[in-house]
Design a protein that fits this description.
The protein is α+β, with helices and mostly antiparallel strands and 149 residues long. It has a single domain, classed as Sufe protein. Chain: A (Alpha-Beta Complex). Helices cover 46% and strands 17% of the residues. It has a three-stranded antiparallel β-sheet, with helices on one face. β1 and β2 form a beta hairpin. It is globular and about 40 Å long. The termini are far apart. The relative contact order is 0.20.
């Protein structure tokens, strides 16, 4: 992964691939799914994130809506990264992603293709875009823990 961070064209290709062909980009409306509506007041981003979290595992995660390139691609990558992970593993991935976005040290191996957004820390106007889906999942993880209490 370290080599990816050095090649802006590879990073751009990752982002464009996830924008043009977003993964898990349809809501299931299935039983047992939690859903969060996320919208930005400063741009077009308006998405729904849904997740099925059972027995402490993120069994499924999807999203749908209208969003810019950065929002769509980052959320698409997130759905792939956290699927079939424990809630603790998902939180660790999210913690490292938010650290990267904030320009803090992070574990790039945990983030896989999400390292494509490392440069966002230098573009304050894009931080919301790169995190909107991730904050949606954060809400769903918290909601799932409340249901387990």
């Amino acid at each position: 992964m370290a080599d990816l961070l050095k090649d802006p064209m590879v990073l751009r290709e990752i982002i464009m691939d996830h924008y043009e062909y977003p993964r898990h980009h349809a809501l299931t409306n299935g039983h047992g799914y939690l859903r969060a509506h996320m919208a930005s007041e400063s741009c077009i981003d308006d998405i729904q994130v849904e997740a099925k979290i059972e027995d402490g595992i993120v069994r499924d995660v999807n999203f749908e809506g209208v969003a810019c390139t950065i929002s769509t691609a980052s959320t698409s990558i997130m759905t792939e990264l956290v699927r079939d992970k424990t809630v603790e593993e998902a939180r660790e991935i999210m913690k490292n992603y938010f650290a990267m976005i904030n320009g803090d040290p992070y574990d790039e191996d945990l983030l896989e293709e999400a390292v494509a957004f490392a440069g966002v820390s230098k573009q304050a106007n894009r931080i919301k875009c790169a995190t909107i889906g991730w904050h949606g999942l954060e809400k769903l993880l918290a909601e799932s823990e409340k249901k387990d209490d």
